[in-house]
Automatic annotation (TrEMBL):
Keywords: Cytoplasm, Kinase, Phosphotransferase system, Sugar transport, Transferase, Transport. It comes from Vibrio ponticus. It is found in: Cytoplasm. It comes from the Bacteria. This is PTS mannose transporter subunit IIA. Its main location: cytoplasm. The lineage of its organism: Bacteria, Pseudomonadati, Pseudomonadota, Gammaproteobacteria, Vibrionales. Pfam families: EIIA-man.
Length: 147
């Protein structure tokens, strides 16, 4: 199973942990690391490195971070650059993280990355546009007496 490390600013990671637990249940080989104001970026990197080691069973590790170019992403990128079988996606959302929990068995690390990128893009929708499309596709309802 691919190991997953989720990280982000302030309580992003632990917030996602709560949501993932509600959706997918408790997850093995999945760590959530918050970058809070009381730790330095060097301490963050040390925590990320340790988390990656903790979740890695030999099938690779995927870092999922909140903001591309932010400190959690940059520090995970440093790990990706010097550690084999590590990938990183910056700018993740809850559908991506929850699906990572469900889809990480039986796929390669690169397949999981591709799948999550597709999910991330398709999960963002203009709901007014979706509603308008649904309203246009429904036939008019006919009422025959009654209330």
């Amino acid at each position: 199973m691919i190991g997953i490390v989720v990280s982000g600013h302030i309580n992003f990671a632990t917030g996602m942990q709560s949501a993932v637990r509600a959706i997918a249940g408790e997850q093995e080989q999945m760590a959530f690391i918050d970058f809070v104001e009381s730790i330095s970026t060097d301490q963050l990197e040390a925590l990320l490195r340790q988390a990656a080691q903790d979740v890695d069973s030999g099938e690779g590790v995927l870092f999922l971070t909140d903001i591309p170019g932010g400190s959690p992403c940059n520090r995970a990128m440093a790990i990706m650059m010097d550690t084999p079988n590590v990938e990183l996606i910056g700018g993740v959302n809850l559908p991506m993280i929850a699906n990572a929990a469900f889809e990480r068995e039986g796929v390669t690390l690169q397949e999981l990355v591709a799948m999550l990128l597709e999910i991330g893009g398709s999960s963002m929708q203009d709901m007014r546009q979706q509603l308008a499309a649904a309203m246009q596709s429904e036939p008019e309802l006919e009422f025959e007496g009654g209330l």
